[in-house]
Amino acid sequence: MNDSGEGAGQAAPARRKDARRNQQTLLDAAAAVFVTSGVDAPVRDIAARAGVGLGTIYRHFPTRADLIIAVYRHQVDACADAGSALLATSPSPHAALGQWINLFVDFLVTKHGLAAVLQADNAGFEALHAYFLDRLVPVCTELLEAAAVAGEIRPDIDAYELMRGVGNLCIGADSDPRYDARRMVELLIAGLRRPHH
Amino acid sequence: MNDSGEGAGQAAPARRKDARRNQQTLLDAAAAVFVTSGVDAPVRDIAARAGVGLGTIYRHFPTRADLIIAVYRHQVDACADAGSALLATSPSPHAALGQWINLFVDFLVTKHGLAAVLQADNAGFEALHAYFLDRLVPVCTELLEAAAVAGEIRPDIDAYELMRGVGNLCIGADSDPRYDARRMVELLIAGLRRPHH
DNA sequence: ATAGTTCCGGAACGAGGTTCCGCTTTGCTC
DNA sequence: GAGCAAAGCGGAACCTCGTTCCGGAACTAT
Question: E strands of B33-137, at which residues?
Fold first, then answer.
């Protein structure tokens, strides 16, 4: 992928070597800190772990949200890609939808605090919210439509709404042994089955 | 109800008159601020609105969470009480459950930011979390059991889990016109219907 | 009125995100 | 290899927000 990630750049601006290295160091440090302290870890912790100043972090990632996006971009993309694949290989669209949702839930649940930060109203995290949705809503729409066409689910479900619902259900799933987000999501998915008769 | 709310007090400790008045002023100010700025409004805003210093607020409500609890205590209690009533007057336990959940959802959705703060992992808000659950889980358990006994829903649903799921679904429901928490909760409730054979 | 509490106000502290700016490193040129 | 401008860097400083502290003002019982 592009290092700068912006514009329709012809000739890459050729960033300095140290800058490039720092960016990677930061990504690694952030990933490590997120695993141990959750996505809400203070920026200072990440900077310290990377052995870098605060200014450096903000030069590369203007906002905490951008750093989070960068860390998880690959996994989100992988999840999105898995959608079409599942649809192609699953026996039924409904099964594909279920498996795909499980993928998403597993992803969220294993990232301490990520789900909580996906909320649209979380000031400063609009970019995160937008990235996840831009990437996943089209896939979800595809799966929902296939299942609806197959008559397996109600046809009036909006992918955006479902994604938000699933994301919400995953909030706090870690850190509370009494709450099993997976089970709740199963109920939600069960709820959109077309009443068979 | 008791003003102090603690102990099995015989003779009221007779707080000073100004203290009592300030407590009420604060409650009113907080309620007003919560309506306009949401439950996340800075403590300073509430103090200012009440025309009172910060020390005063913390004397009466040791923590932001305590203030929130105090403001909504009545409504939570009312919701809890409505549970038994609905069960007594509804045609079926399942109908009662549905109506009761709707009551709860309406309550959460109309309180900007409340649902988001109910999370167990929200540091400092354990008291809020605990109050809501202590009050509502028993009612929910009662409704679930009645519906389960009537054979209308799956018998393996835990009230705590369901309450958390519903609460989670309500997060950010205001502030996002594209997301309708009520619809998602409906799906969830639909999902716990016993698959009729 | 007076002493003894109880309360009050708001400065101050700590934590976190973000901004700013003087200094360092790098990459290019001669 | 030396010189220079641009690109980067570090971390002090600023802002917001919750919470704590304490000197002084406001009650109340006597």
Answer: none
Same domain, A139 and A177: yes
Model confidence over B1-50: pLDDT tens digits?
A: 343 334 444 455 678 999 999 999 999 999 999 999 999 999 999 999 99
Residues of A in contact with B161 (CB under 8 A): 178-180, 183-184
Where on strand C do bases come within 7 A of a protein Cβ?
A: 6-12, 15-21, 25-28
Find how far residue A196's CA is from the centre of its chain. Answer: 33
- Assigned domain for B146 exists: yes
A169-188 per-position pLDDT tens digit: 999 999 899 999 999 999 99
B121 pLDDT band, cuts 50/70/90, is confident
Which domain CATH number covers B53?
Answer: 1.10.10
For residue B9, is it within any domain?
Answer: no
Q: Compute the Cα dihedral for A69, A75, A81, A87 and give only its sign.
A: negative
Q: Which residues of chain B have a CB within 8 Å of the CB of A189?
A: 191
Inside any domain, residue B170: yes
Strand D: which of residues 38-57 in chain A lie with Cβ below 7 A? 51-56
Closest of B16, B44, B15, B19 to residue B30, by C-alpha: B44
Rounded to whole angstroms, the distance from the CA of residue B66 to the C1' of nucleotide C2 is 37
Same domain, yes or no: A139 and A92: yes
Q: Flag if B120 and A176 touch (Cβ within 8 Å).
A: yes
Residues B42 and B99 in one domain: no
CB A132 within 8 A of CB A168: no
Say whether both A51 and A80 belong to one domain: no
Q: How many domains does chain A have?
A: 2
Residue A50: give the domain boundaries: 17-60
Q: Are residues B122 and B166 in the same domain?
A: yes
3 state DSSP class of B196: coil
CATH number at residue A152: 1.10.357.10
Query: Which residues in chain A have their CB less than 8 angstroms from residue B39's CB?
Result: none
CA-to-C1' span, B40 to C10 (A): 22
Catalogue the long-range contacts made by A2-8 (C-beta closer than 8 Å, 24 or more residues apart).
none
